[in-house]
Amino acid sequence: MTAALQGVVTIEIPPKLDYVPLARRLVAIAATESRLDPERIEDVELATSEVVANAVHAQHHSTRPDPITVRCGFESTAFIVEVHDMGGGFLPPDPAAFELREWPSKDTGLGLAIVHSVTDDVVFEDADGGTCAQMRFTVGRANHPAGAAPG
Amino acid sequence: MRIEHRQAGDVVIVDVHGDVDVATAPQLREKLVQLIGDGHTDLVVDLNDVDFLDSTGLGVLVGGLKRARSNKGSLQVVSNNERVKKVFAITGLTEVFGLTDQLGDEVSP
Fold first, then answer.
1. Which residue has the higher pLDDT, A57 or A115?
2. Predicted model pTM
3. Would you say A20 and A52 are in contact if contact means Cβ atoms under 8 Å apart?
């Protein structure tokens, strides 16, 4: 899934939740070099936090000590974030995972719905014994209005 | 993250400072469980000093709301931060928490 990007920043973090804030903040700083609007950079930070947290959880279950790799950079029209874990491979998500379930069962499973809402595209693929999630944030596209998932 | 709480009439205000995310949300969960367990079932969680909220933090609030309601109580959330409010809006939880920008007069300091 590795795309040809410019201004590439690659971060490796230990597969521990304490490092999730560091990863999201560094990616948000890298995103300031793109032409994304400030509000979209907030989306980058939120989505990165969710996906990196998922990666840490996945790797925790596999008990592998490999780092989580976060790679980001920009194409001509988009900022791209890739999160690669070694959590033993990825099971394609049930499309329902992207749909918010009715309250009061909403205390779990919110992360993927948030990611789907604030990105312009997100793809999960098996990669090198783990999973690579690639998120795309299109430059110049308006911030998704709160409460409205992208079409 | 730093959490404080104070009594305001029949309600307990939980003031949260800092990021509420996958790394810190367990502290908030512990505080809410403790307060409700101690009989403080009507809570207002003030997120006005929170700049970042993720799905784990939101899940903790949902868990707190369920726990409060199961004890015949309530849990309301306050935030004037557009970034935080957006997370509630995306997930359709704004109304569930009665999200408002500021504390009501009856519980203001």
1. A115
2. 0.87
3. yes
